[in-house]
Amino acid sequence: MYGVDYQEAFSPVAKLNTVSVLLSLAANLDWPLHQFDVKNAFLNGDIEENVYMDVPPGYTASSKNEVHQLGKVTALIVYVDDMIITGDNEEEISLLQKQLATEFEMKNLGGLKYFLGIEVVRSKQGIFLSQRKYILDLLTEVGMLECKPADTPMVQNHKLGEYPDQVPTDKGRYQRLVGKLIYLSHTRPDIAYAVSVVSQFMHNPSKSHMEAVIRILRYLKSSPGKGLMFSKHNSQSMVYGYTDADWAGNITDRKSTSGYFTFVGGNLVTWRSKKQKVIALSSAEAEFRGMAKGLCELLWLRKLLTEIGFAPTSEMDLLCDNKAAIAISHNLIQHDCTKHVEVDRHLIKENLEVKIIRFPFVKFEDQLADILTKVVSSKDFYNSLDKLGMRDLYAST
Question: Does the global pTM surpass 0.85?
């Protein structure tokens, strides 16, 4: 937008959630994973040529579907100058590699092993992602490589908030550490809630906030090699999710925290833990707002899978443990008590009517998204991680 960001330079990057979806498909369909690096990529070079960001005038697009002519798929994932190529046609993949080599100076790195600080291990069991080296380097940097490990990333019933008499801490160090933890949470859903909490105090951190960050690092010390396993399942296009909310859990402003997990092909691909922007007047309202966020993520996944030729063949399930919120979503009558969530309600109602989504009830003890909204007991925490597909290939047997 001119006058706002017209002069800014943006690096072309793939959404990391997209990478997770394609890795799940690769694990289910036995697709190869090739990695390349572009040697002569310049992020901020001056461009003298005309660059058209829209269809040039006079060009008429063909109505012929040129992407999936033979029912084959080849995906090119680009993150600035790093590339991953995968798909179900080795001949097409080879042809794409040769075409890229004629335009750029490419370096073939072989099978995918290390991508953006994420370690990739492939075996008969599936594709395993971890950030073990990243964690060990971080612990070394802050002098905590020999620290005492913690069994959970955050203590139960924590009272983190902003107080008038709080003791300040090094703001720059706090922001750097939290920033590194945010990036680490791309493969560690187990720290998502804890990182979400400490991220809320970036502008004015205190000693107690820094202690919470140190606790997360101590937890990471207990299992630096823990990561996500993408296994082979029978239904590669199966899409579903879990959504949950903790009502008025924030002690400072009484706002609720909602979270969701989504799965593609039986593998966890995306998750989020976030404090809601407005105060919910009831637990049903908090859950309902969380359902809307989870639905938006499932709709994005559906659109992505459709674009690459793997559209879901049935309704997507978003499992919720609040019967009142589920009842509101199915009620065709607009009541005064639901006017404040009217936009979310219409979004949910529309997708229910066209049979894109369903909201099955899940028992509280089977609600996986609970660990994204609050600190649970150590037993429940590790039970959820097992069901999410988190493993530690480096743990001693």
Answer: yes
